């Protein structure tokens, strides 16, 4: 049965602390998707990784999945500097490959099983990216994933290479069992609009991971499901019909003037969460 999970995307703007995970556990979650990007988490810092492993054990939290880097530091992302596996320049692709490879090795030591990857740079920054570039990069990462027993889950994102059909076609073209999809509900609604249910059906059979969040169809709000217009009943049907068994990961953005505990308590009370099996366990 799919298990609910909380993405550390909620805390991405600051370094991880024990208090972040404590809020996750107190909201009733048993799983967390880690955010392998600075300043939230430095995968190259052995002391930080050791603390992280201890915190997870102390709170009986599992980390079955993590988001692999698509930037080296949030400050660089804010100025438009992205990592891209599909970049047209080999040197730029190599930088992304190296950052992601380091995260795969570090996270495998935490018993993670799924690495979520962006296919390209986001939005208009990905206009020069190419499917062939992505294919060359993923071929470099597959042997590492195999060795570490990790699944690479390619996420649909708002970008020229990021639509549901593009992601599905890339995965089928690769044709390797360790390369699957991460079905992102909010991104599907942004890119597909009223055709989002078709996007769900396209990616659900390929999915090893999910990102669940809501929006108004115009901006990537990362809202609690039910606060926007994403057609979640269609998503639940698509996942159920394909026998999806991976984590159900809620990927929220922090709110102004709201603490994490209050935000997560609202999430735990949301109707879609009951459908995910968590209900009102907080």
Can you walk through the features of this model?
The chain has 282 residues and is an alpha/beta fold. The protein has one domain (4-275): Divalent-metal-dependent TIM barrel enzymes (TIM Barrel, Alpha-Beta Barrel), CATH 3.20.20. The chain is built from eleven helices and eight strands. It has helices at residues 18-26, 46-58, 74-77, 90-108, 131-148, 164-174, 185-192, 196-203, 232-241, 260-269, 271-275, and strands spanning 4-7, 31-35, 62-67, 114-117, 151-155, 179-184, 207-212, 248-250. An eight-stranded parallel barrel has the order 1-2-3-4-5-6-7-8, surrounded by four helices. Helix 4 packs parallel to helix 5, helix 6 (164-174) packs parallel to helix 8 (196-203) and helix 7 (185-192) crosses helix 8 (196-203). The two termini are 20 Å apart. 49% of the residues are buried. The mean pLDDT is 95.
Number of domains: 1
Major sheet summary line: 8 strands, parallel, barrel
CATH class: Alpha Beta
CATH topology: TIM Barrel
Number of DSSP helices?
11
β-strand amount: 5-15%
Please state the CA-atom Rg, rounded to the nearest Å: 17 Å
Task: Trace the largest sheet across and list its strands.
Answer: 1-2-3-4-5-6-7-8
What's the shape?
globular
Q: Find the structural class using helix and strand composition.
A: alpha/beta
Residues in helices, as a percent range: 40-55%
**Average pLDDT taken over every residue:** 95
Second CATH tier, the architecture: Alpha-Beta Barrel
Can you tell me the residue ranges where pLDDT is under 50 for at least 5 consecutive residues?
none
Overall strand count: 8
End-to-end Cα distance = 20 Å
- The CATH fourth-level homologous superfamily: Divalent-metal-dependent TIM barrel enzymes
H/E series, N to C? Answer: EHEHEHHEHEHEHHEHEHH
